[in-house]
Amino acid sequence: MNITIIAVGKLKEKYLKHAIDEYSKRLSRYCKLNIIEISDEKTPDNASEKDELIIKDKEGRTILSKIKDNAYVIAMDLNGNQLSSQELSAFMANCGVTGNSNLVFIIGGSLGLSVEVLKRANYKLCFSKMTFPHQLFRVMLLEQVYRGFRIINGEPYHK
């Protein structure tokens, strides 16, 4: 299986880079992992709703340019479905057996994802109604993907 994570924003904190490196190493036995960072657009403090839409659209066009036609796109979206770790594992396994072995997870910027990216998504996933820092969320997503592969393979993992 091929897993791609497209994330808006650059990772700056060393401790988060170390965590991503660790999960990338762990995932290498289960999948081919590719992480693509998209530069985030600067949002002025007093940005209007129109300004925010323009920023999301610009980020969205860049995101869409990185997605291959045969990709199964999973957008991280507050209005998406919430799954348990076991349900995410079953979802990933089902994708693999139904010919969707190129999964692309998209993490938007601080303003969220554009309408066009959400339209392109095959599935919308929500980890929680809480707000998380985007850089930390990348680690959380990798951990859940790793946990999913461990579950798929019947391997023990902390519950």
TrEMBL record:
Q: Which residues bind S-adenosyl-L-methionine?
A: 108, 127-132
Which cellular component appears as one GO term in the record? cytoplasm
UniProt entry keywords in alphabetical sequence: Cytoplasm, Methyltransferase, rRNA processing, S-adenosyl-L-methionine, Transferase
Catalysed transformations (reactions): pseudouridine(1915) in 23S rRNA + S-adenosyl-L-methionine = N(3)-methylpseudouridine(1915) in 23S rRNA + S-adenosyl-L-homocysteine + H(+)
Question: What InterPro entries does UniProt report for this protein, alphabetically?
Answer: Alpha/beta_knot_MTases, RlmH-like, tRNA_m1G_MTases_N
Q: Name one GO molecular function term.
A: rRNA (pseudouridine-N3-)-methyltransferase activity
| Keyword Transferase in record | yes
Judged by the first EC level, this protein's enzyme class is transferase
Chief location of this protein within or outside the cell:
cytoplasm
| EC numbers on record | 2.1.1.177
Q: Where in the cell is it found?
A: Cytoplasm
What does this gene product do? Specifically methylates the pseudouridine at position 1915 (m3Psi1915) in 23S rRNA.
Q: Which family does it belong to?
A: Belongs to the RNA methyltransferase RlmH family.
- Entry-linked NCBIfam families: PRK00103.1-3, tRNA_RlmH_YbeA
- Quote the HAMAP family the UniProt record gives: 23SrRNA_methyltr_H
Quaternary structure, from the entry: Homodimer.
Q: What is this protein called?
A: Ribosomal RNA large subunit methyltransferase H
Identify the species of origin.
Answer: Clostridium vincentii
